[in-house]
Amino acid sequence: MTVKLFAPVLLCTLMFLLPTSPATLPLVINTWPFINASAVAWQVLQSGGSVLDAVEQGCTRCEAEQCDGSVGYGGSPDEKGETTLDAMIMNGDTLEVGAVADLRRIKNAIGVARAVMERTDHTLLVGESASLFAENMGFTAEDLTTNKSMNIFSQWLSNNCQPNYRKNVFPDPSKFCGPYKPTAVVNEKRRAQSTDILSHDTIGMIAIDQHGHVAAGTSTNGMTHKVPGRVGDSPIPGSGAYADSTVGAAAATGDGDIMMRFLPSYLAVELMRNGADPSSACKTAISRIKKHHKEFFGAIICANTTGHYGAACNKFSKISKFHFMVSNSESNTPLMKSVDCI
């Protein structure tokens, strides 16, 4: 009888002492195969830095390396040939957010976003005023134009400014570069045809340390040939990214003009709060958008405070898989993962 009572007690003691799953914290996960950004963020956590430091420095590396030409300076020129930047960072402990949009002359957009969060009572600064704020905070003003971005712009001009993101308008009959006037003819297909997956490679990053502190951030130079002043999903809290240290975080990439209407990152975090695993939360967030826009391109990464993670994407053109980077205590190095699109 004594032996029978002892066994359950011993089993319960072992279950209390041993983890129910392999240790997966700390964790860094980011959209796309941006390995150097992931490596920098992981090194920050390994050296005792905060999750905010990890996200900021990881995204900063992508900005400096001009990841895929869609992050940082010298990429995605707008209709005037100018490169402008959007970024945000969120503290999952305090739910504070700092963001910038339509930022000019400043290469380190995620750094300015963090300054907005920590040096002001505001959440989002935009345009020329955001650039002046950055300069006042000591950020260096630089030309964001490069030979590559000017070549992209020149080729676009030579092609009569096609494709672009305008609809229901008609231009000067002698060319397609405007001025534009409204037309009663509705043409919804034109925009979809002009959408280029390579113009949506936002870096979205999540960092969770061994104590469960969470941060998330994004950085992008937006859509190539966008209408000047356009702001996408990346700097919008709950759309580009969202973090809550009681739950986890999510970050999105893709067609921001569509995705921002659904706040997919916020939705994914709320789904995890209600018990969904990260993969299911990501799939539900993408499916919600797909119900209304079957042909959009978009992807999202999710992670909870136990270190579990997932991702999901919508099939678009020839894209059937989405690649992302993961660093955690199991691998101790950035590894590329992929998920089949739905």
TrEMBL record:
GO terms for cellular component: lysosome. Coiled coil: none annotated. It comes from the Eukaryota. Substrate binds at residues 230-233, 253-256. The active site is at residue 202. It holds the Pfam family Asparaginase_2. CDD domains: Glycosylasparaginase. Its EC number is 3.5.1.26. GO terms for molecular function: N4-(beta-N-acetylglucosaminyl)-L-asparaginase activity; peptidase activity. Residues 1-22 form the signal peptide. It catalyses: N(4)-(beta-N-acetyl-D-glucosaminyl)-L-asparagine + H2O = N-acetyl-beta-D-glucosaminylamine + L-aspartate + H(+). Keywords: Autocatalytic cleavage, Hydrolase, Protease, Signal. The record marks 201-202 as: Cleavage. Belongs to the Ntn-hydrolase family. Cleaves the GlcNAc-Asn bond which joins oligosaccharides to the peptide of asparagine-linked glycoproteins. This is N(4)-(Beta-N-acetylglucosaminyl)-L-asparaginase. It comes from Cynoglossus semilaevis (Tongue sole).
